[in-house]
Amino acid sequence: MLGAEGGFVNDPRDRGGATKYGITQETLTAWRRSRDPGAIVNEDHVRELKIEEAKEIYRSRYWNVLRCDDLPKGVDLLVFDLGVNAGPARSAKILQDVLGVEQDGSIGPVTLNGLNTCAPDKIIREFSAKRLEFYRSLEEDFKVFGVGWTNRTKSMLDAALAMAMAAAR
Fold first, then answer.
1. Is the pLDDT assigned to residue 1 strictly greater than 80?
2. What is the C-alpha to C-alpha distance for residues 41 and 25, in angstroms, rounded to an integer?
3. Residue 2 has pLDDT above 90, yes or no
4. Which residues touch 49 (CB under 8 Å, ≥6 apart)?
5. DSSP 138
6. Do residues 133 and 158 both lie within one domain?
7. Are residues 97 and 45 in the same domain?
8. What are 5-57's pLDDT values in tens digits?
9. Nearest to 110 by CA among 92, 134, 87
10. Which residues contact 47 (CB under 8 A, 6 or more apart)?
């Protein structure tokens, strides 16, 4: 995950703005203000973000929100990775679409029960296909970032399938 997100980037074509480890300035601001309401975060703060704090943000704002501990191995990686890349609600809705349950953007009992209707490898393949559909729907952004998004989707698909296979043994 950290390898996919990489270090500091501030691409003017990316609406997310200054980002490090996949943590945008907006996300870092919200995180720090949840601890100190007067916190001010600028581009330099993003640039100086330490991996330890990024991991705390990942756990609190993405992994836990998406209930990844309750997801099958491999599925957890994909849902988490897309949550960081496109937002937890988007990731949850894509999982819910794959499972054929209500797409409310929040993983709860209905979504978790839906996991019983499908093998993890099938969920992983369908989730990855729907992820690419989502990226392609962002037409102008896809022209700029599509190759990277497609490569990331493929590498995460491969890693998730390997995780699912290992868990099945």
1. no
2. 7
3. no
4. 8, 20, 21, 23, 28
5. S
6. yes
7. no
8. 678 999 888 888 999 998 999 999 999 999 999 999 999 999 999 999 999 99
9. 92
10. 8, 18, 20
